[in-house]
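In response to a reviewer's request, we include the raw inputs and outputs for one of the modeled complexes. The two entities were modeled together in a single run.
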Amino acid sequence: MAGSTLASPTADPAIVGIGRARHVSPGTEAWRRFRRHRLAVASLFILGLMMIAVAAGPLVWQIPINDIDFGARLALPSWSHPFGTDDLGQDLFARMLYGGRISLAVGLSAMAVAVVVGIIVGSVAGMSRGWVDAGLMWLTDLFLSLPALPVLLLLIYLFRDPLKQLVGPELGVFFLIVVVIGGFRWMPVARLVRAQFLSLREKEFVEAARALGASKWRQVVRHILPNSLGPVIVAGSVDVAAAIILESTLSFLGLGFPPDIPTWGRILFDAKDYLDIAPHWALFPGAAIFLAVLTINFIGDGLRDALDPRKVM
Amino acid sequence: MSRYLLRRLLIVVPSLLGISVVLFTVLALAPGDPFGELATNPNVPPEVGAALRAKFGLDDPVWLRYLHWLIAMLHGDWGFSFVSRMDVDRLILQRLPATLLVIGSSQVLALLVALPVGVLAATRPYSLFDQVANTFAFIGFSLPTFFTGILFILIFSIYLDWLPFVFRADIAATGWRWYWEMFRQAIMPVAVLGLFQGASWTRYVRSAVLDVIRLDYVTTARAKGIAERAVITKHVVRNALIPVVTLVALQMPAVFGGAIITEQIFRVPGIGSLLISSILANDTPVIMAVTFVFACLVILFNLIADILYGWLDPRISYR
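The model returned the following structure tokens for the whole complex.
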């Protein structure tokens, strides 16, 4: 798609004017290809349902997440508690709806950080030759060979307390986790963007823009960047899944969010000592993480079919 | 080949230096210092604290502290654990074999799953087998290792009661019985890590084989009358493995991340669980050393991947 699509949508009416029977915009074409991946469409539906549930659920299901009820400790799923209760008798359904907001928000924001950093590094490296390019790529390779989880744990260990004092416990941990996860996922995006830039900047349409006197900034923003976004969107969708897994991993190790913020990983961490008497407590949050990650991965696969220029269908 | 090897070994040095700079910068940027506990402890007189700071050079400029730290690391002086009351390098050496055992066997398991399944799926693209394998691969790498671990414990330890769910370093048995117990307790951690890796490798193998199998030289090999089996194993797989090795090397950091989680779930006494327990106990020297060891292991595995490259594709080592 990269080289063959029109550089700007303003050219579209001209083509229709020439008299092609039916005009298909790149977006429609991508949607048509995406729809052929049935599992991706189903995943989009399921993920949409999950997002609506965590966004609107707490408004409908009004049991407070910290409503302690020792009469119903470790209760199995029932009509009053659809997902059962934990060791303090707190309603798991309410806690999971609330925690899901955080888990999904962390995934999306970390992806945004990773994609923005990756695009900046990749486009600077792709547009400049010589030592800037070489230096940035060396940095990218260095980050790729850092063991992410140990370094992540180290960063959280060192910076958790000062940030908590600075902006409060919840926001502090959220910022730290988003920035740190984003800071460890930008490398694939940077490489993809750089590779796209290297080939696109030599294409005729960019040369034409250059000949017309477009500044370097305009060449990048109007012509090169929009055409290199296909693979970035695919990589970004995979990053959401990876960030959700990383956040749950940190919470699961007891080093993520504090206990009063029940993200899915945190609920799992609390549940793992009660596996023998209350397996439902661990199964529901685990299944939620799995379902979110699986659907995002399938959507990423569908997006690859729809957007990746290397795969022509 | 030896010149190629030498060149690869020389590249390792700047990467190790880069990683040590990154780690040290992180530590230097962090507010407070590792001796903060001593400084706030009312039992330590201020002059003793100051003397300690001078002794460990904590008031020196950053680059000087980095050099001191680097030289000490190179001399094998990795510091002293606040919690375990022993030298960090001895502590890590004690824990390393368990980690290497779990990671090594899980990689072998992943390879044993990924290679045959990936090749079979690629030789019959879009068949029923391919679709089933693909779906299972997706499920496999979408299941986070901590959840698979919990599921395995739930099924195999609690409901079926077949396997122990705590990994013990001190098994009270000798001879064959020791090996049997060791095998039994290693099954679950290795399976959790190996199946997760195997699932993503299966997809790499499949797409790499699909890329190679359409090439002309494969058709030529078939035209010569070579049996299909020999064409696949001798001609296709070897060339398909080259991109797979790259992707596997890129995945190494993730493998170590998975190892930390599995060690934590099954209480394997490796360096991953050491890292978590020292973070919970604020044991800075151990945290720094373990992180550095993980970084070194990643670079070591990347080096192995490079050597494999040279063996799979002789052209690379002649360049």
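As requested, we also summarize the result in words. Chain B touches chain A through 50 residues (CB under 8 Å). The longest helix of chain B spans residues 175-213.
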